[in-house]
Amino acid sequence: MSLLNSGNSKTRKGEKKGFTTYGLHLAPAKLSGFNVCKDASQGCAAACLNTAGRGKMTMVQTARIKKTLFFFQDKQDFLSELWKEAAKSIKSAARKNMTPCFRLNLTSDLPWEKIKFNGQSIFEAFPEVTFYDYTKSPERMTAFLAGDLPKNYHLTFSRSESNGTLSEAFLASGGNVAMVFRKSLPDTFKGFRVVDGDETDLRFLDGKGVVVGLKEKGLAKKDETGFVLEPV
């Protein structure tokens, strides 16, 4: 069972900019019996893209649950395999003249900066490549903005129906915040520039202090919690 994939329909859009994203899909929230998204809101859990695209297939869901159980029940072997696959992925990208990058929380929100193998985080083990993620963790986003996370790890905060005030505070501090909008994206949101987050998944190229606008997809189209922002 491979842990990493070489992209989905969203992450593959970065290839036109010369990047190949390798990602890790775990079973989100408490789907596996272990919680990998401790700060998820009700709206976030309901609108999760876990079942988008091939994710709706039973075999894919089963594989994600198996990976999650592997992580929690045999963590050191899991990390050993992850390190090996990351090294292979870097070499594979080089053969294709592409720049590798990694997103380990495609459907999770684990604090990878605290997860160690042989005394190192994965960011320390592979300092030459960029890692990036979305997070709903105020603690992790605060640490990122304070410069307390590894320099090769970029975080974008995710707005939900319950953290709007915090999201605006992070924007004012120069952080980026992903927001889901109904049908179309505005040019600005409360004075902050909105960039099209659906164009590519390469969040580390967005600049600072911007709203990463995402159009509603999948189950988010039925959202009534306020997770999806209505057009003004």
What would you note in describing this structure?
There is one protein chain. The chain has helices at about 40-45, 60-75, 75-95, 120-125, 140-145, 165-170, and strands at about 5, 20-25, 100-105, 130-135, 155-160, 175-180, 190, 190-195, 210-215, 230. The model has no long low-confidence stretch (mean pLDDT about 90). About 30% of the residues lie in helices and about 20% in strands. Strands 1, 2, 3, 4, 5, 6, 7, 8, 9 and 10 form a 10-stranded mixed sheet that branches. It has 6 helices and 10 strands. With about 230 residues, it is an alpha/beta fold. It has one domain (about 5-220). The chain is globular.
Query: What is the approximate shape?
Result: globular
Structural class: alpha/beta
Summarize the biggest pleated sheet.
Answer: 10 strands, mixed
Measured between the Cα atoms of the first and last residue, the distance is 46 Å
Provide the helix percentage. 25-40%
List the SSEs and their pairings.
Elements: E1 4-5, E2 19-24, H1 42-47, H2 58-73, H3 75-95, E3 99-103, H4 122-125, E4 130-135, H5 138-145, E5 153-158, H6 164-172, E6 177-181, E7 188-189, E8 192-196, E9 211-215, E10 228-229
Parallel strand pairs: 2-3, 3-4, 4-5, 5-6, 6-9, 6-10, 8-9
Antiparallel strand pairs: 1-2, 7-8
